[in-house]
Amino acid sequence: MSPHVGKIAQFTLVTDFTIILMHIATLRLFPGITAATIRAFLMPPIRGVVLETFGAGNAPQRADLMDALKDACDRGVVVVAISQCAKGSVSADYETGISLLKVGVVSGGDMTPECALTKLGYLLSKPELSVQQVRGLLGTPLRGELTLPTSNLPRSLSQAGIDESLENIHGVLSQVLRLSAKRQNIPNITVSPTSPDKPVSDDSIAAWSWTAAEAASTEAALLPFLMHLAVAKDDAEGLAFCLRDSEVATEDAEAQEMKGATIIGGVANCIDPASGRSPLHVAALNGSIRCTNALLKAGALVHLRDSLGHTALYYAARQGHESIVDYLVKAGANFGGSDIEGGFVSLIAKKALHAHDERALRIWTKAGAQP
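Structure tokens predicted for asparaginase:
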């Protein structure tokens, strides 16, 4: 490993690289080129050659030329073939290109002459690399210098891999819809023209198909996750997007059925099924002042309690977020559930009193506690 890795340092040229440049060259093939010319060109101290071939990697198919190239490759000279054309890549799809590979010439893909020469010099300057390793790395993109043929692409980047990834995404979204289906043991705040007891359509959890109704269903399922994340980071822009995007703009009757779960009031009070917390709970815990204000304006309910029975006001006071306590109290919030019945408020307020923590006492008093 280079001693400069992970350090801020001035760029320096490796001495070995400068020396190796004197032992590499480019050879441009032309009709009528002789085997003697190639042999003379590949004699020591030459260690590497960029061979500029015709078209997509073609070369004269004379036996004496191939023998000259094979002899050099067998001696350890690294020969990389590129195209003389301004655009395009060498290919092994043609018989003439295959013959070069058989004698030991390495395909340089679509590298330019300058790129191939620089890469060849760089690799040969590495004493820890064998000739075979250099040949292997020449056909491997190190810094995006060449484009892999489709057949050599990692599966994740090939069309088959992309199709498979999309299929996986569709599967994940189908599971999101399935798990987001209404369950009786989870509080559900909706405003809907249809009966709240109407079961969720099986279509919304069926194998993926992109209908208008399912698009709306997917959006309704994903918006709560996005909203909780935006609120945790106090990202007012992300929260505004969720509140704005929650209005379903479609005439499809099935999609309209989802509107109850996605109107502003509903999304502003969406419950995290794991903790039972609303976005307002998340804002209070994380000190998200901007999002607290936005949620209250959007109709967030201040009296909701999470799975532990705590209110957003309790979390704001416990975390010492005085500004959020002020917002919540102004909106009519008070302690309830486990805050009072579990003795949490009185216990923490008394601890603040005994510790002479004036700031904590002020916050708890504002919130309605009596130390």
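The first strand starts at residue 24 and ends at 28.
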